[in-house]
Specification:
Helices cover 9% and strands 23% of the residues. A two-stranded antiparallel ribbon has the order 1-2. The chain has helices at 26-30, 59-62; strands at 3-10, 16-23, 44-46, 51-54. It contains two helices and four strands. The chain is mainly beta and 99 residues long. Strand 1 (3-10) and strand 2 (16-23) form a beta hairpin. The chain is elongated, with a radius of gyration of 23 Å. Among the domains are: 1-36, no CATH class; 38-67, no CATH class. The termini are far apart. Residues 63-99 are annotated as: Disordered.
């Protein structure tokens, strides 16, 4: 589906959603607009579960689009969470009594 009009909403948890309100009509395309656009299913693995990797038969590959490798994205182990420009945090040599 080619989208012409939509509504952006932000949930209370900060999630942003886009909802199509009106599909792009064929008359727009017949007037020569979006002549080089491709309307196709991107072939996501499981969009409903937010797995936006694309399957091997995705039209993205025909268009020369190389999906980025996101396998290293996300939270990192604690020892790798330091910003490279920040000095390491020193541990207190004199632990305070608990309780």
């Amino acid at each position: 589906m080619r989208a012409a009009n939509g509504v952006k909403t932000t949930d209370v948890d900060g999630a942003v959603r886009y909802e199509l309100t009106q599909p792009l009509d064929d008359a727009w395309h017949e007037r020569g607009h979006d002549r080089h656009s491709v309307t196709a299913d991107p072939r996501f693995v499981d969009a409903g579960s937010r797995d936006l990797r694309v399957l091997a038969d995705s039209p993205a590959f025909e268009l020369g689009i190389t999906p980025p490798d996101v396998s290293g994205a996300g939270p990192r182990p604690g020892e790798l969470r330091r910003h490279p420009l920040v000095a390491p945090t020193l541990q207190d040599q004199f632990p305070r009594p608990q309780g």
